[in-house]
Amino acid sequence: MTQLRIERADGLLTIQDCGRPGHLAQGLSRGGAMDRCALFEATALLGLPAPAPAIEMAAAGGSFSVTQPMRVALTGAPMLATLDDAPLRWHATHVIMPGQRLRIGGAQSGIYGYLTPAGGITSPEWLGSRATHLTIGIGSLLQSGQSVPCGPDDAADAAPRVIDPLPRFNGGTVRIAKGAQTDLFGADTLERFLGTDFIRAARGNRQGVQLDAQDRFSTEHAAGLASDVIGPGDVQMTGDGIPYVLMAECQTIGGYPRIGCVIPADLPIIAQAAPGTTLRFQMLSTTQSDDIYRSDASLIADAAARCRNLIRDPSTIPDLLSYQLIGGVTAGTELEESQCA
Amino acid sequence: MSSDDSLSPGIFPAGPDALLVRFALTPCPAAMDAAQVLAARLDRDPPAGVTEIAPALVSVLLRFDRARTSRSALADTVLDQARAIAAQPPAPPAAVRRWTIPAAFGGENGPHLDDIANKLSITPKAAIARICGDDLRVLSIGFAPGQPYIGLLPEEWDLPRLTDMTPSVPAGAVVVAVRQIVMFGGASATGWRQIARSAFRTFLPDRSPPMPLRPGDAIRYVAAPESEIDMLARNSDGLGGAKLEVLA
Predict the structure, then answer these.
(1) Which residue intervals define the domain Carboxyltransferase in the entry (chain A) (predicted)?
(2) Measured between alpha carbons, how far is A314 from A83 in angstroms, rounded to an integer?
(3) At the topology level of CATH, where does A172-292 sit?
(4) Interchain proximity A293–B16, CB inside 8 Å
(5) Do B112 and B83 fall within a single domain?
(6) Interface mutation vs chain B, best among A20, A24, A176, most B CBs within 10 Å
(7) What is the pLDDT, as a whole number, of residue A316?
(8) What residues of chain A have any CB closer than 8 angstroms to a CB in chain B?
(9) Domain boundary among B87, B110, B144
(10) What is the CA radius of gyration of chain B?
(11) What is the pLDDT of chain B when averaged over all its residues?
């Protein structure tokens, strides 16, 4: 069996995929990768028919080895990576051979890096997903010495690929859509909210991320409000009027008022904002946010268009003849049906 | 439900592929009934393109497939239904399933039972009879997977949350506040009052199904001695002796 061995875990490592949508009525939130864009970029880089499970690495990676040759994609927050001490490019695919040591250090910007084996991770599924959901005890943090079962990589000799990642690792402007409670906040409060530079607070995890500012943003309706359905992207105002953006492992029902919902395209910016990063919000109308929306399949196709073969100077490649110099030619239709279920 | 409760249902966006039908901002009983009725109707006969239906206390979230319907088309359909329900509130829909769940009331299993009985000016025995005497309904599931909000209890059970949190109630704790019951899936801190303990586990990942309760299910508690609950807790199914009847 092909295995990816965690020789040493330095960051918080979990297996993540697109999560488990469709169980809100039973109180289970979707979960899955904090930065879905990183999954889609790995899908495109590896030429996979659909997003594959990845090892999500919070803040830092660790040291890894393999039992069979396999390609891996490195996406999400750029981290310092080496293969047997040779530097590896981030936002790219690489072949790892048995006996080699892949080392992934701390994030240079952003928080969540992703290590995606081309053959997929074959750990047991629960409700159709392999995603670790820490808050409810599904799966757990990967530990040093643990082996992750993987599928075989049938194209381990495919040409290495690189991708121009969507910029999302240094904060900036985040678009939010109007939600069911936006109008409970006064026009003045909304205006102040949209005019504020927020700082990503130290408090944040897979459930949610707190934002700091001098100002406070509350609504007089907060007290008697009935609990309602909540989800990733919702910007909740706690009792103190401090915003808290709900993330992948949030609860499904909540009583705090929500000023809006970060659009899915921009949620990775929140996920990847390291503590201290500045974030601002821009409010979209429902029509605007609906028009911007892209399906997972279309996002993956878009990522594929940002991929190219890694061009290297042949004179610097010691084992040039071991490379298959033509590869990765397909009918080009494999992305049409792909999406997270 | 009093007749002067006026409901003004509205449709709101909830992300790019979902909308929310809301009957009121606050948890008034009429709105809760209306949300139950709408959720049950939608469950029975989902509009084209709807992929997920999730009821909260006074609202229902509908997720839809944008390739099969549009926000405006779905909003029109559902708003008509919601307005009809609000205009002439029908009786809560008949339950499709009923769970009968044994629970040990009072004493260590329900430290607040005597206090509640005092507040209601009835005996603890009568309080237990009130809880066990009727079918209650799962209004919504949330806070933790599978964990139900059950209601509504009679009006005199409109007890405020305690200002002092109880640091920990055990898994299976049956707690009450604001005319509702929560049955905890795991040990938890709570500001609600514990009246009983069951051996029913609302979430066990390895059980099939992991989260057995569904919104709309009828719940009937039946008083059982503590020794029986302890014995039922040893069953590996985690159902704590609960019986499920399919009614329709």
Answers:
(1) 25-299
(2) 19
(3) Cyclophilin (2.40.100)
(4) yes
(5) no
(6) A24
(7) 53
(8) 21-28, 126-127, 136-138, 177-181, 184, 221, 224-229, 231, 233, 251-254, 261, 263-264, 286, 289-290, 293, 295
(9) B87
(10) 19
(11) 93
Q: Are residues B217 and B102 in the same domain?
A: yes
Determine whether the interchain pair B15/A22 forms a contact, defined as Cβ–Cβ distance below 8 Å.
no
Closest chain A C-alpha to B145 CA, distance in angstroms: 4
Q: How far apart are CA A158 and CA A180, in angstroms?
A: 48
- Return the structure tokens found at B75: 């909003």
What is the residue-level pLDDT of chain A in tens, covering all 341 positions? Answer: 899 999 999 999 999 999 999 999 999 999 999 999 999 999 999 999 999 999 999 999 999 999 999 999 999 999 999 999 899 999 999 999 999 999 999 999 999 999 999 999 999 999 999 999 999 999 999 999 999 999 999 999 999 999 999 999 999 999 999 999 999 999 999 999 999 999 999 999 999 999 999 999 999 888 888 999 999 999 999 888 999 999 999 999 998 999 999 999 999 999 999 999 999 999 999 999 999 999 999 999 999 999 999 886 565 555 555 555 555 454 444 444 445 54
Q: Are B110 and B138 in the same domain?
A: yes
Is the Cα dihedral A263, A269, A272, A274 positive or negative?
negative
In a domain, B2, yes or no: no
Half-sphere exposure of B33 (CA within 13 A, CB side): 20
Amino acid at B167: P
Domain membership of residue B226 (yes or no) is: yes
Cβ atoms of B158 and B179 within 8 Å: the answer is yes
Q: Which residues pair with B188 in a beta bridge?
A: B169
> What is the domain range of residue B53?
10-87
Q: Do B71 and A286 touch (CB under 8 A)?
A: yes
Greatest extent of chain B over all pairs of C-alpha atoms, in Å: 58
If one counts the domains in chain B, the total is: 2
End position of a domain, from candidates B67, B87, B107: B87
The Cα of A135 is separated from the nearest Cα of chain B by a number of Å equal to: 9
